[in-house]
Write a structure and sequence with these properties.
Layout (H helix, E strand, L loop, with lengths): L9 E6 L3 H12 L4 E7 L2 H11 L3 E5 L7 H10 L4 E6 L5 H8 L4 E4 L4 H12 L4 E2 L4 H8 L27 H11 L4 H8 L3 H15 L4 H11 L2
Parallel strand pairs: 1-2, 1-3, 3-4, 4-5, 5-6
């Protein structure tokens, strides 16, 4: 889902099982103008429950938590349309990261990310723009094509690459937008590149995700790279 914040304030739920780390994340986010921490969760089950109760704009989700791991918690939050999810992990490319992105996470960051980058990441995802740590994008694209069950573009058959026919439902403009996503461009940058309003870009992104059966623009960006757009 793409987040529409109220009054410019990004409402964040922080889900992290380590109290000290969670306290640090909350402290950083509360120091940022326009960011409000509306709740804290110490395990995956609590994260899903609070997301249902509080309806935050974004859940900052640790991928390794007790009771319910961050991958399954992300899947439930995204499936129910409760919030966008930005996952945090100690390791840049472990199985949890891939699982979370396939579950529909809007992006991920490493836990050693600088405070200012964490705040900017939260704002970026809240604008409906996915985010992946730049240093691992190429490796992520290579790994993301791993086996997945048959279905839409986001669930291709094991051992097969994407078929360009998945693009057939897209209009010419939607294909151009998808290509820009593959380059990692923001909505504002796509708007400049294609000479259209930013609101129109958001509409195209939403429509192409629906047509391709994808849950996030991160998945769309990876698909665009796989197809060589």
């Amino acid at each position: 889902m793409s987040t529409e914040t109220t009054g410019g304030t990004v409402r964040v739920l922080v889900a992290e099982d380590q109290k000290a780390v969670r306290a640090g994340l909350v402290l950083i986010l509360r120091s940022a103008p326009g960011v409000e921490v509306v709740g804290e969760a110490g395990d995956g089950e609590a994260a899903v429950r609070l997301a249902r109760e509080l309806r935050p704009d974004l859940v900052l989700m640790d991928v390794q938590m007790p009771l319910l791991d961050g991958v399954e918690a992300t899947r439930r939050v995204v499936a129910e349309g409760l919030a966008d999810v930005l996952v945090l992990t100690t390791f840049d490319l472990d199985e949890y990261v891939f699982g979370a992105l396939r579950a529909g996470a809007a992006g991920f960051l490493l836990k050693n990310t600088e405070a200012r980058d964490l705040i900017e990441a939260v704002r970026t995802v809240a604008r409906g723009e996915g985010l992946i740590a730049p240093a691992v994008t190429r490796r992520l694209i290579a790994e993301f094509a791993a086996p997945r069950r048959g279905g839409g573009a986001g669930d291709r058959a094991a051992g097969t690459g994407p078929d360009r026919s998945v693009l057939d439902p897209l209009t010419r403009r939607e294909r151009e937008v998808l290509s820009c996503l593959g380059e990692g461009l923001s909505n504002a940058e796509v708007a400049v590149r294609l000479d259209m309003a930013e609101a129109t870009v958001k509409t195209h992104v939403s429509r192409l995700l629906g047509k391709l059966g994808l849950r996030s623009r991160v998945q769309a960006a990876v698909l665009a790279q796989e197809l060589g757009l």
